[in-house]
């Protein structure tokens, strides 16, 4: 792979993150340097548990990659591995910014890769065959494709920069709030904003929070706060990859308008993966691979408290837009997950705990009604213009 990349005129730096016998001829960064970059003495490494060894190598490789990037010496990174190598690569690439090309060729890429890549923009390529023994009839093609992917990204990729000349607004979305989000995005664009939509899938929400912290976002229309269900209670397949959902905008002091889109249900995979404790609740079969399951009154009360606590900490202007009739397609009157009593527990807890500094706007409407999108955009636009002045 190094030879293939060099053949395209690019320099290569090989990091050896192995731990046992030397298997790589003349790496540019030896395994001892990787261990030392993690703050460990190489002589103590093998006294650790296997998972601690992997974590040390991943952390050390991440430090080296980050240093190379900060010096302007890194245009992309590629890794090869099985389960262990993929884990090390994931930890190392986590230190690199969104937008820098990242590729992993892995024997486990056809499984659940969320723990490895979290909310990083990593391209995962299934190796098909094991990588043991060097290139062969099968892996030669896979590895050359992967090298081509990295080279192509490094040569063609547009750097992640804020250069549109427009203020950037982040909007959160799910299928159950699609009508709301689609209209809001259109209205924002009409008013001259650049809109970036983030699917409320856990990883996207965490990526949005990081981009807000990095200063890439000027305002937030957080219309779909479903991910808080997973952050507060776990289990949900859309649990954020990092805690702290709905907090970055408050830290940065940028304007935000928040709504309870999709906050009244859990998301799970296929029915046979749903924990038994949820099976006695109302269930909506969203598709064969996704079950929506109603949150209880107790859970809704807790969510109302958490939302208030997070918004109360905001340093900038914040409004909570509360449609009183329902917060998703499936949670609307007549929908399979409609439960007005449980929703009221959320509303009561929110009202009781929300600081007077947070503007609470209640509407006698469903969340997907056009007037809700209109109101959300109006509130955010007013605050962004005020802050610009």
Descriptive keywords:
3-stranded parallel sheet, alpha/beta, 40% helix, 389 residues, 6-stranded parallel sheet, Rossmann fold, 2 domains
Radius of gyration: 24 Å
CATH fold-type name of the largest domain: Rossmann fold
**Tally of DSSP β-strands:** 12
Q: Average the pLDDT over all residues and give the rounded result.
A: 95
At the fourth CATH level, what is the homologous superfamily of the largest domain?
Uncharacterised protein family UPF0261, NC domain
Distance between the first and last residues' Cα:
53 Å
Please summarize the sheet with the most strands: 6 strands, parallel
Order of helices and strands: HHHHEHEHEHEHEHEHHEEEEHEHEH
Number of domains: 2
Strand content: 5-15%
Q: Give the quaternary arrangement of the chains.
A: single chain
Helix content: 40-55%
Number of helices: 14
Q: Which strands sit side by side, in order, in the main sheet?
A: 5-4-6-7-11-12
Which class of secondary structure composition applies to the elements? alpha/beta
Uncertain segments are: none
Structural description of this entry:
By secondary structure, the chain is an alpha/beta fold. It folds into two domains: 2-156, 3-Layer(aba) Sandwich (Rossmann fold), CATH 3.40.50; 168-382, 3-Layer(aba) Sandwich (Rossmann fold), CATH 3.40.50.12030. The chain has helices at residues 2-7, 31-37, 42-45, 50-70, 83-93, 114-117, 139-156, 178-190, 203-213, 227-233, 248-252, 297-312, 340-353, 370-388, and strands at residues 77-81, 102-106, 123-126, 168-173, 194-199, 219-222, 256-258, 265-268, 283-287, 290-294, 318-323, 359-363. The strands form three sheets. A six-stranded parallel beta sheet has the order 5-4-6-7-11-12. α8 (178-190) runs parallel beside α14. It is globular, with a radius of gyration of 24 Å. The relative contact order is 0.09. The model has no long low-confidence stretch (mean pLDDT 95).
